[in-house]
Amino acid sequence: MRVFPVVLATAITLSAASTFADSTRTITDDLDRRVEIPADPQRVVITGIEEVTAMFTSLGYVPTGMTWGYHSNVVQTLNGIGGDVGDLGQVTIVGDSGDPDLEAIATLEPDLIVGWFRQSDDGIALLEKQALIAPTISIHPRFNVFGLDAYGEGAHLGERYAKQRFVASLVGLEEQFDAQLAEYEALLADVKARHAEIIPDLEWTFLDTFSDYTPYMYDQEKWFTYSYNGVMSDLGIKPSDAMTNATAQGIGEEPGKGYATVSLEVLPDYAADLIFAGRYDAEPLEDDLMLVLSQTAAHQAGQIYRVDSNTWTYHLLQSQIGVLKQVDEILSAGVENLGDF
Fold it and tell me: Which domains does the chain have, with CATH numbers?
């Protein structure tokens, strides 16, 4: 596993506010803004996409309000991560993350608003409107990426869990975070020991079928942000050479982002011992994609698995725990070909 330098102290800082040391503190958010916030916020509204909200809810935190980003059924999506997410049915939904209902947010009387605001005229304008209601901070949803832009000059990598550790500190859930980390590390050691004989010989490919005709293929060796990639790296299962090369070149995408988009025509070239085909919904995989997959050696060996992209591509300890349990079940021959998680 690649080890990244720890830069948490410069990426996000916490310090007691000089005037109201007992009630507030000052943080530096991912837009490099120093913001005074409550030391113990009680009414947090999250206006970011699901990945921002999930950093809180996967630790058991129930916000006062939240928006949806990619999925209007945001409660179902967040519940699907697993773990103790609390009763999210009681949370007030305040619209779309790109166009939140500011009046509804104000009615909730939050003492802290957390979102992901792009460094653009529209993003900053939205942040400033929400900041009129309550202290507002911007958190990038990648759990180790800090800075103004996900892949731009203002971004840099932090310690792998730095972002979610910071989120836990915002709402007093450091113990829950530490417990999840201990659970993951213990499970990882157990799975590695039980499958030590077969792991060194395996390769994997992940197809995030956001569009079934152009499956996205991720390999986050540079931008270490996806739960499945962390699990595979920790286990010692190698990504396929074809996928590594494609993502290094940024085929079909902007180079340097760590992913590629490939067509169905060349998809067989990316076959590996284990193929994971992910979707963000319950819809079946397209017939054309199924036909291509059925012609791969992985299909003949019974080693193609459909997975939930929400869990597999989120940036959370709880997601890693879920992915690791599923991989363990697969390696234990407990799931049939194209088994659905």
Answer: 8-172 (3.40.50.1980), 178-340 (3.40.50.1980)
